Amino acid sequence: MGLIKPLLYTLRELFRKPVTVKYPYEKRDISPRVRNIHTLNRETCQHCGICARMCPNNVLKMKDGYPTADYSRCSFCGICLDACPTGSIQMIHTQEHNIVRAHSEDLYMELLNPDGTVYNPEVASIGQDETNEGGVF
Amino acid sequence: MTHEVPEGVNPRDIASVLSWVKGSSLWNLHFCFGCCSTEIAAAMMPRFDIERFGFAPADTPRQADVLVANGPIARKIVPRIQRLWAQMPDPKYLVVIGACPMSGGPYQGSYNIVTDIRDVLDVEPAAFIPGCPPNPEGILEAFIMLKNRIKEGSYGRN
Amino acid sequence: MCVLRIWIGDKMLADSLLFKLFVFPGTVFSLVVVLFLFWWWRKVGAAIQSRYGPKHVGPAGTLQTIADVVKLIAKESIIPEKASRWFWFMPVFSFVLSFLFLSLIPFTDHWVILDFDTSLIMLFAVMAIEPLLIFLVGWASYNKYGLAGAERAGIQMLAYEVFLALTFVPIIMLSHSWSLVGIVYAQGVSPTWATPVAHTFVNRGVWFAVVQPLALLLSVIAVMMAMHIKPFDIPDAEPEVIYGASTEYGGPFYALQMLSHFLMMFLGSGLIVSMFFGGWEGPYLPHVAWFVLKTLTVGTTIMFIQHSMPRLRLSHMMEIAWKKLVPLAFLNIFITLIIMEVLGWV
Amino acid sequence: MAEIEKITATPETLVDTALGLKKAGFTFLEFMSAVDYVPKNKVEPGANRIDAVYMLWNPGTNEQKMITVPLPRDNPVVPTVMPVWEGANWHEREAHELFGIDIKGHPNLSHLLLAEGWNDTYPLRKDFKVEEVEIDWNAPTSKLAEGEPERVYHFAVQHPGAHGPMGFDLLLDGNRILDAESRIGYVHRTLEKLGEQRNYYQNILNMERGCIMCGMPYIEVWARAVEELLGIEVPEKAKYLRLIAVELNRLSSHLIWMGPQQGGDFSYMPVAMWAMGDREKVLDLLEALTGGRITFAYIRPGGVRWDIPERFREMAEKNLRYLESRIPVYEEMMFKEPIVKERLTGLGKLTPQEAIDIGASGPVLRATGVAHDTRKDAHIPIYEDLGFQIVTQTAGDAWARGMVRLGEMKESIRLILDALDRLPPGNSEADLFNRKAMPWMKVPVGETYAVTESCRGRLGIHLISDGTNTPYRTKIRGPSFSNMYAVEHILKKGSYLYDIPVLIGSMDVCPADMDR
User: Fold this and answer.
1) Cα separation of D32 and D184, whole Å?
2) What angle is formed at CA A124 by the lines to CA A122 and CA A125, rounded to 5 degrees?
3) Which of A28, C162, D89, D276 is most buried, most CB within 10 Å of its CB?
4) What is the dotted CATH code of the domain comprising D5-139?
């Protein structure tokens, strides 16, 4: 009897819809607390460099007065958020911001703007589609 | 339309068929040495199910195509990684997942950690996916990137 | 000497031995079936595990197994330095051997490559050689885990070989035939072909699944044991001996082993269909289609059991085989004897 | 938590002191380690010695005592305490390779955590320099492999049944194991040394990575140790949130154990897959609460990072009730299934006496009928208020361990839902000091030992502060370290090749937790 009952459970499972989220084609809901990439409010940033000093993994480095991130080192722990005295640095998650790169050099990048767009020193911001450069989708 | 039409594959061009085939059947070596291995397990299991794309685990290096570097490289494990890589038949690919194999991640500055997988294996990885650990979607994207790079011919010997 | 006759038709190419060997039911057809079965196996497993399985490579993932096999064949074939020089030979030989098995299975009484009065004995012989080959595969690879897996294959053969034979005894008693075609006829199936082989059989007019449910159960277990199907896949238990005998085999060698494994799975189901489910009998559809359909149904059932069961411990498997299944098989023989005596079926 | 009660001994009197303490009820050796005092240290300025440290626990009265043996730095020698506590074996090997303490009378002092050919440099000494390390890569993998390497089965590192980068060198007779020697240390990330290199706040990051499957208890016990030294009390709400986070993490860890680990040992794919699928429900909750799935950075000294999110209660109710309804299914499939039951019953039997001697803890100890759960023993906040019940079994075998974990899952679900119901209002962080100054906090000189029950057993952090913003010494007692020793102990008693994966699985050994 003990042998039959598991078979009944598996038989029942055979006719159920899979729980799979067909990822690239459909996406699951992700909590807003997930930390996947940094953003920096460049208006309130005080150029103090505390985030860079506090980062245990040496991810953040100061360049032209603003922190830049080397994502090959990042653990996404958010200690830089706690350390920032003005709260300029934040971490966000959007599905488009899964960082996947073919070359390790591409992992070194400027922090995004607070609205999730790419920061460009010359132009204030460029379009959303540019954020995916080097990514898969 | 959720199945991948073999785009750019010309049935008369054996090379393009082969590269499509190689990209569609990537078996990663079942070799866990870090936190990210739990997320690789999660990616294989029902919620994400990377077998949809033909990515499956292989238990012995002889049958594997992909070595997924998924954890901190302690000095003790270095010869084992090199040996496993040597045991894998060509063509073989390397995917780097998480911060540890790229830079030591949270363990940089430790006396027992090799900070870069490229010092150990002398191969250029196909895809880098940062995170500690990255979520399973990220791992799936890394595999798809590897697949696309094989298809394009921009990675690996064909 | 066995009466070995091959039927060759007068006109049609389809009747020639070459066609049977290389097209149907030989190489081409069996390759297609094997690739389909591999895909289907993964799909059934995935459904039980509440996921999709291969899905995006080709429509519903149907090209997945083709991609897998082509990739494996295209890969580098590594022969370990210390391996025997017969390393490459063993998987090839075991693949060829599974075709010997194929030639004995009657798809119909016409679509059978080898048919003679005592084909069941030859079938047992072929089934007994297979684990020996696996043993040689493991030995040739000069790998500790390969050898451990080979050893287990040998042990498992000791467990199932005896009661496999005992299980089929009641069927032979009932049908008075040592030939698979004869056994199918004995289940009340009318011959579709003027048979040149004088099959001796007694027509019982009923599927043996009905009169011999215990033998059906035992033979399904025996076939699963012989084909190394979970819960009896002890010789290639990943957590224990990695891939057992095929640990060192990658690339084309592994592709061959995989193909022969699924071919054997198909043929094992075919054997059960011939023995218990009236072979090719069925209305409306062509006979061959019925046979394949029945075989796939039995195969799917086996897959279902395989995917929903844990693996047995080695010693537990021996215990079950010798202390439970062999006595059961004997019991079945006696029950059959008594019933045959009472009903006057002798 | 008060000061740790210290007893000073000399190498000559050590074994007698140990025996006396064991008779007095201190039967459980938590760890044996050392503290290196160089002259310029700020804890005891001028001291130039190595203290061998033996942390003891009295399961009857729940007292903690510590034997310290001051030794000279140039030639530290202590006798082995293995005759008193068998579990001291690996701890002494660790102290030997990391601190260079010579253990007199020890049967095997080969490298455990470090690479086999590591030269005579001792990483945890304060004057250690990485440049001096040289490794002989041709060294044999274990003492067993020294003689006849051809005969040795390497059940290790990449073996699919080894549950991660660890395993054994085996001498086999057919399937019977003649001798076994563990090979661990492949994920030795030196958390103890890193703890001394980074400041208290940065340590949130690496302490949490102590165990890959349950990081939350690690960071909880770390935060509690720091708070004890700082003398701050966290608000009631933070205690509840910590409990919720830890128990959610325990659920996810036990589901991994149930699925890919123990289920995977028999290739029992339905259970393996379903457990991972159901684990996602728990991970959804963890993600909503903390933003992480495996690592969280949620608990920090002084409280927790975020308050509870909106609609968390409903989500938890829905997901956890679903999980509760699945537990009978798992019970039916794993623990009543005859094949699995046959494999698990009688496997790896430990008596209560053996388990305590070895230092095994957690479900391994509770399966032998000893009702010790650190959550209750050490009065971890809130657990007693919620009426926490210890789950025990009496058989002491693999099956009993599984049933204990299954019972713990039910208990965890109940605890989380109760805690959510009784969640008090208020702050989730102590506002005793400036939050923004936290990253630079200096911790007063002191020494503490905080314990908790991680998913695998008794987890402790021995923290010595020297008044700066970096710890002077952090010693982590990883429960898997002793539990893995129990596996080796059982294998040496006589076992079979096919039992090894099941045995490791039933002990729920986490390599990261073991190697630290």
Assistant:
1) 18
2) 110
3) D276
4) 3.30.460.80
- For the segment B55-97, what is each residue's pLDDT rounded down to a tens digit? 888 888 888 889 988 888 888 888 888 988 988 888 888 888 8
pLDDT of residue D428: 73
Give the pLDDT confidence score for residue D433 in this predicted structure: 54
Query: DSSP string spanning D70-84?
Result: EEESSS-EEE--TTT
**Is CATH 3.20.20.70 the classification given to domain D207-442?**
no
Rounded CA-CA distance D194/C263 in Å is 55
Using the structure block, give the residue that is written with the tokens 């149930």: D258
Check CB contact of A6 with chain D, cutoff 8 Å: yes
pLDDT value of residue A136: 40
Per-residue pLDDT tens digits for A12-61: 888 888 888 888 888 888 888 888 888 888 888 888 888 888 888 888 88
Q: What is the pTM of this model?
A: 0.89
Task: Say yes or no for a CB contact (<8 Å) between C51 and A16.
Answer: no
* pLDDT for res C300: 92
Kindly give, in sequence order, each residue whose CB lies less than 8 Å from that of residue D259, ignoring residues fewer than 6 positions away.
B45, D271, D272, D273, D274, D275, D276, D279
H or E element in which residue D297 lies: none
Contacts C314 to D, Cβ<8 Å = 175, 496, 498
| Selected residue of B3, B9, B28, B67 to mutate for chain C interface (largest C Cβ count, 10 A) | B3
Domains in chain B: how many in total? 1
C contacts of D159 (beta carbons < 8 Å):
242
D402 contacts D335 by C-beta, under 8 angstroms = yes
**Residue showing tokens 């958020």:** A81
Q: How confident is the model at residue B128 (pLDDT cuts 50, 70, 90)?
A: confident
Beta carbons of D272 and D264 less than 8 angstroms apart: yes
CATH of the domain at B143: 3.40.50.12280
Domain annotation covers residue B9: no
Give the tens place of pLDDT for each residue, C116-125.
Answer: 888 888 888 8
Assess A48–D contact: CB distance below 8 Å, yes or no: no
Quick check: is B13 in a domain? no
C50:A22 CB<8 A:
no
Q: What is the pLDDT of residues C25-41, one digit of tens each?
A: 778 888 888 999 999 99
Partners of residue A136 in chain C, C-beta under 8 Å = none
- Looking at per-residue pLDDT, the higher value among B103 and C197 belongs to B103
Contact C48 D270 (CB under 8 A): yes
Q: Is-contact C72 C251, C-beta < 8 A?
A: yes
Residue A130 has a pLDDT of 45
Q: Peptide bond before B133: cis, by omega within 30 degrees of 0?
A: yes
CA distance A33 to chain B (A): 14
- Chain C residue with CA closest to A24: the answer is C56
A125, pLDDT greater than 50: no
* Residues whose CB is less than 8 angstroms from the CB of residue D65 and which lie 6 or more positions away in sequence, other chains included: D4, D5, D6, D7, D21, D26, D55, D56, D58
CA gap D516, D505 in Å, rounded: 19
Let me know if residue B8 belongs to a domain.
Answer: no
Residues of B with Cβ-Cβ distance to D283 under 8 angstroms: 42
Nearest C-alpha neighbor of D356 from the set D13, D47, D27: D27
Mind telling me how many Å the CA of C40 is from chain A's nearest CA? 13
Enumerate the domain spans of chain C. 2-343
Q: Closest Cα partner for C171 from C138, C133, C213, C130?
A: C213
- Where chain D has pLDDT below 70, the residues are 1-3, 430-439
Range of the domain at B133: 18-152
Distance CA A32, CA D467 (A): 38
Residue recorded with tokens 């240290």: D41
Does C311 lie at the interface with A, CB-CB under 8 angstroms? no
Mark yes or no for CB contact C50/A19 under 8 Å.
Answer: yes
**Residue B32 belongs to some domain of the structure:** yes
